[in-house]
Amino acid sequence: MNSEKLLSRQWITVGAISGIIANILFPILLLTSLPSYIEIFLASIFGILFSLVGFALHHLLKYEKITILTQLGAIFIFCSGVIFNLMLMVQLTFKGYLQHYQDGITAQTDIDLLNWIAKTVDPVHLGMQLSNDFFTAIAMLLFSIVMLKSKYFGKIWGISGFLISISLILIKCYAFPMTPYEIGFPYIFGPLMVLWFLAVCIQCLRKKQEINKLPIA
């Protein structure tokens, strides 16, 4: 029992710190122009780090109540991180190959052909993004339900996560196969999710300090 509780506390620390780093990397990848090798490295570790967030939440919340909701949430977040990693790798690989061919082409017909290929093939990564969004939003929804009655979080955390996740799912379905931004919705759900998970990870570390005061036995 002692080793199990120690392992659980380690999961809270590792998952929360990984989540904080991942959510700091997100705006860097989104808003900055980096050398390709740095962009590839940061993109590759983002999904890996984010996939561990759910384990921190599960292990913290199970101190109050063991429920299948947090276990499912951790699984879905893990899947989300894997899909996000795959999405970014496909997107960056396609972008790199396209740029390589564009650099050596001067004929207008060839340029038009490459532009057509880009418009046709590029939406593949948007399908992966949609899949990632569903896994992330459902995980948020599950954790938010448990948070509503949690002493470690409470109604503000639960309601905010519930509203963000439900809104994301509904708008993504409504906009399909386009993105919400393409049909006129402002780009707010990505930043809102990042801020929510960043705050949640910080809260996990804060509450772990309280848990550390509890006896291991």
Task: Describe the protein in words.
- The protein is an all-alpha fold and 217 residues long.
- Helix content is 80%, strand content 0%.
- The chain contains 8 helices and no strands.
- The protein has helices spanning 2-31, 36-50, 53-61, 68-103, 108-121, 123-147, 155-175, 189-212.
- α1 packs antiparallel against α3.
- The chain is elongated, with a radius of gyration of 20 Å.
What are the SSEs and their pairings?
Blueprint: H1 2-31, H2 36-50, H3 53-61, H4 68-103, H5 108-121, H6 123-147, H7 155-175, H8 189-212
Helix pairs in contact: 1-2, 1-3, 1-8, 2-4, 3-4, 3-6, 3-8, 4-6, 6-7, 7-8
Descriptive labels:
elongated, mainly alpha, 80% helix, 217 residues
Beta-strand percentage?
Answer: under 5%
SSE order: HHHHHHHH
Percentage of residues in helical conformation = over 70%
- Tell me the distance between the termini: 7 Å
What overall geometry do the principal axes of the alpha carbons give?
A: elongated
Give the overall pLDDT as a whole number: 86
Put simply, the count of helices is 8
Low-confidence stretches: none
Could you describe the largest sheet, including whether it forms a barrel? none
* Alpha-beta classification: mainly alpha
Task: Tell me the total number of β-strands.
Answer: 0
Task: Round the Cα radius of gyration to an integer and report it.
Answer: 20 Å
